[in-house]
Amino acid sequence: MMRSHYCGQLNQSLADQEITLCGWVHRRRDHGGVIFLDIRDRDGLAQVVFDPDRAETFAKADRVRSEYVVKVTGKVRLRPEGARNANMASGDIEVLGYELEVLNEADTPPFPLNEYSDVGEETRLRYRFIDLRRPEMAEKLKLRSQITSSIRRYLDENGFLDVETPILTRATPEGARDYLVPSRTHPGHFFALPQSPQLFKQLLMVSGFDRYYQIAKCFRDEDLRADRQPEFTQIDIETSFLDEADIMGLTEGMIRQLFKQVLDVDLGDFPHMTFEEAMRRFGSDKPDLRNPLELVDVADQLAEVEFKVFSGPATDPKGRVAALRVPGGASMPRKQIDDYTKFVGIYGAKGLAYIKVNERAKGVEGLQSPIVKFIPEANLEEILNRVGAVDGDIVFFGADKAKIVSEALGALRIKLGHDLDLLTCEWAPLWVVDFPMFEENDDGSLSALHHPFTAPKCTPEELQANPSTALSRAYDMVLNGTELGGGSIRIHRKEMQQAVFNILGISADEQQEKFGFLLDALKFGAPPHGGLAFGLDRLVMLVTGAQSIREVIAFPKTQSAACVMTQAPGLVDNKALRELSIRLREQTKVE
User: What span, in angstroms and rounded, lies between the C-alpha atoms of 260 and 252?
Assistant: First the structure.
């Protein structure tokens, strides 16, 4: 091998030993006739010293520049007291260079790697192969590898089989657009890239492989944001003959072991919370429990006030009026309140009413707000008691359709928690359970809240009689306000699956066309089964503290789903299109 050690492996135990390093020149310094090269590889940095006593080697060291690829042989020695670097893993030692071989020269990189530089993301993605040399990026990918290794070990030890499922499959309605692949051998027909291995893992359960897992690539053609990519990695798990409690216990153990091994963090037992409680208290089905702020319903106190902004939603069965107390918030200047008003407007809120609690003992006179004149004093007192307001607090109000109030105040709660530094701990996991089976669309139709293969907590007859109130056997694992993974017990009886399809408006012909193979499989002794899928990219993002999953994927796409490094997607020539029986329609140019 060309090297004997990685740079980050060097320490005092190797003193006086001859070693060989290979890597890139991270930094070059000339100190009065002595040349220092910091050599970098994936494990870290090592300082190599070249002195004039070895004239040929010294001359080579004098010519090298940043990012040259080099091979260095020398002797490890302890650094003098006062010259040790606590910021480097190898900071107690240095290497006295005997031999230096330049394996390749390098042009000046488009951005410096040896110091922090606020480089635009597009430039970093254009030169991603250079960006990944930066130690902080290398650490993220190394941690990602440790996470996948921990997961594989845990699942292997618990009797799971790693089984691959097809990438080229057919389109199924799973909530997002499919990426389509034209078939050359079947003109006019298309494969779809899988949004998840959902149907295949269920078929594996029917096949008798009762413990399956896969770290799988999945694809969704949807608008992107910080935690979404068109292609992403999923930790896919499915089991037979286990119920919700078994599956949740098994996967909770996996995540707890992972955090202990990778971060030395004990997450403890995960609390359970129903979907209804999460939405009521936090305005979100993935609440961040590090944040102590809570939403409190106050519609009963505002239903009869003359102020229609409150009384309208308070008397609307689909409306909600909720309050959010912020301790010490009465000192907020008006501009900050205006900024928060604009913020909740993103979520459809028409405004942000508030009451500043200056001195409760003075009653209405101790409150500062343009809305107190519309609310009877007894109702005000009850509202303030209910939210636990004390002097110096501010109470924000949301009044609108329930969905808008929950989303707006839920998002405001998160923002306030970060802006005002209110978080009480570093990690806060939980399980959210008892989700609704369906959600109502704008046109009154129903769609599956998770996916159409989730089992309900009722019989087919009860489901068809009251679909809008049915609960599912679904469960989500949440950490710090991020959904780590979601899963459910699946439907394993044909009559229940057809009942769900009927409620979703999927006709019998469409059922047979798109899911005939699954419905057929359910006739041949499908076992009770369920599972869970984790978003690996989001998990790594949380563990590393990254702000975007693009930071923890080696070669991610931009927010417009493009790769600026390879210039993908790209055009193809007419010959290739003809072979696929495709003709492009000329786009109308906008003047």
Answer: 12
In the block, tokens 């070693």 appear at: 19
Task: Please give the model's pTM, rounded to 2 decimal places.
Answer: 0.90
**74 in Cβ contact with 29 (< 8 Å):** no
Backbone angles phi and psi of 297, in degrees to 5: -75, 135
Q: Count of CB atoms within 10 A of residue 72's CB?
A: 25
Question: What residues contact residue 8 under an 8 Å CB cut-off, 6+ apart?
Answer: 41, 43, 44, 45, 46, 89, 90
Q: Extract the tokens encoding 344.
A: 């909740």
Q: How far apart are CA 257 and CA 154, in angstroms?
A: 8
Buried b / exposed e over 99-120, threshold 16 CB at 10 Å, is ebeeeeeeeeeebebbeeeeee
- Tell me: the pLDDT tens digits for 376-401? 999 999 999 999 999 999 999 999 99
SS3 195: coil
Which of 345, 363, 343 minimizes the C-alpha distance to 355?
363
* Residue 231, SS3 per DSSP: strand
Strand, coil or helix: 194 = coil
d(CA 533, CA 94): 46
Alpha-carbon span 171 to 550, nearest angstrom: 27
In degrees to the nearest 10, what's the CA dihedral of 98, 101, 102, 103? Answer: -140
Q: CA–CA separation, 413 vs 422, rounded Å?
A: 10
Cβ contacts of 377 within 8 Å, gap of 6 or more: 363, 364
Q: At what angle do helices 402-419 and 334-345 cross, to 10 degrees?
A: 130
The distance of Cα 503 from the centroid of its chain, to the nearest Å, equals 31
Q: How many helices (H) and strands (E) does the chain have?
A: 17, 22
Angle subtended by helix axes 536-544 and 244-263, to nearest 10: 40
DSSP summary character for residue 339: H
List pLDDT tens digits, range 295-348: 999 999 999 998 999 999 999 999 999 999 999 999 999 999 999 999 999 999
SS3 (DSSP) at 387: helix
- H or E stretch including 271? none
Separation CA 10–CA 3 (nearest Å): 12
* HSE (side-chain half, CA atoms, 13 Å) at 483: 16
Q: Please, where are the H alpha helices in 185-325?
A: 198-206, 244-263, 275-282, 299-302, 308-315
- Opening angle at CA 255, ends 251 and 258, nearest 5: 135
